[in-house]
Amino acid sequence: MGExxxxxxxTGRLRKKASVRPETRREWxxxxxxxxxxxxITRRDLFALTFGYLPLAAxxxxxxxxxxxxEARPVLDxxxxxxxxxxxxxxxxxxxxxxxxxxxxxxxxxxxQRGDADSIVNLLLFGTSFTAQPRCTIQQxxxxxxxxxxxxQLIRARVRDFAAAVARPGTNERLxxxxxxxxxxxxxxxxPAAASRIATVLLENTLRVVREQQEYNxxxxxxxxxxxxxxxxxxxxxxYRGRGLSLDTSFRPNYGIERSLAEMQSAGLLRQxxxxxxxxxxxxxxxxxxxxxxxxVQTLQPFALVDSLRRLRLADSGGPAxxxxxxxxxxxxxxxxxxxxxxxxxxxxxxxxLDRDTQWRPAxxxxxxxxxxxxxxxxxPLRPPPGAAVRMRAVRIRPDVVRLLEPFDLEIVIQHLRLxxxxxxxxxxxxxxxxxxxxxxxxxxxxxxAAMLRPxxxxxxxxxxxxxxxxxMHPAGATSVAYSNDPDDGDHMLWYRRV
Length: 499
Ligand SMILES: C[S@@+](CC[C@H](N)C(=O)[O-])C[C@H]1O[C@@H](n2cnc3c(N)ncnc32)[C@H](O)[C@@H]1O
Prior knowledge:
This protein is of the alpha/beta class.
């Protein structure tokens, strides 16, 4: 611990000793759990059952369910002075709560569209599959000072190549996605005057992303000046609450997760993980930090988690079962396709990129070198395009590992899976997701997470979360990890234990 600054686990709005109120405890016990399994159990399932990891697909009872008013009550009471409009007026009834929750769920899901727009901007600036132009950074566009003309000069050649490529995307999944997105924006890639309409839409969105980035930088700089490290971390933990929901992912947080798992194991907090969940695994489309598009779109975190759990002997060689909880249709379709293909015997290949121009810590490089080795076979990676300063590894992940994943469409602020006790999770991993929400929404999410964890189960999050009386999740420790020598390139991984 302590490698990456100080970690304020018990500070700010957090309360050290949140007690479970008796009435809340009753509410928890009163939750009706669906039981029964009408799906036929195969010999393989019986084998799995013996070892404690029944593939999640076999259980039709695991349905997403919205938080009831009774379940939300501790959070509503604790945030009574800062409730969002729609919850603060007349006393709430079950019906008015449900109405608000349904509308809020819809509002959160609608933020995916703006996240998609951000992904397209990343592809435009960093992509190399559609252009020979050098990669461009947000910082370079920022240096244009929000001046549309200067920014457009900088990215003009890229925009031109992008417009030509989306008109003929072929089988390039990123360009196909971009073409569909442009169509939705009223800039049909093959229509008349397509290039100029595309240029307008891309420039508008690039400037918006740059403006947003400048605001985040300003907020962080202000917090750094005014506050101590603890408050800075709290400020950062909700930084993206107004932003579009991005799907970005890279290998970085997976190293932080492995370190945390090892420390939780040493602390006796984690023994065996039979059932885990990854909340928001994301898709490596064109990550905003590393930003490559020369390999297929991929997901990493679920595989990295299984790999780490097996390496640490926290899961046996046939497990764990891993629920994939996400609201993004793109993420869910991607995982579903991988699982379907694995059922037909196909492996899933991950390409692991390590930038050469980052001053990585040796331990990060070690992790990159061994990542996924427990669950697959090292193969020749795809060759980076000329000029890309990146080292590559690739691992072909065995189909039996891919089949451990089971995707669920779930929006964590409002929903959880109703799970019978024996199917609750030992571990939930949630990195770079709760930062998109306000403390009130994070508290609701914590209540939903508590409903899916077994007592003693652990949540790992790289954001500090509010501690609310009546929400049975308590801080239990933290791991601080530096990925590179950049002082801003690290994570505080907080451990929350379901009491
Ligand atoms: C920025 S990505 C993080 C990916 C990965 N966890 C990582 O750390 O690299 C955020 C992920 O969370 C998902 N997500 C965002 N809000 C969510 C919500 N309210 N409920 C479920 N999933 C959500 C997104 O769809 C995406 O998969």
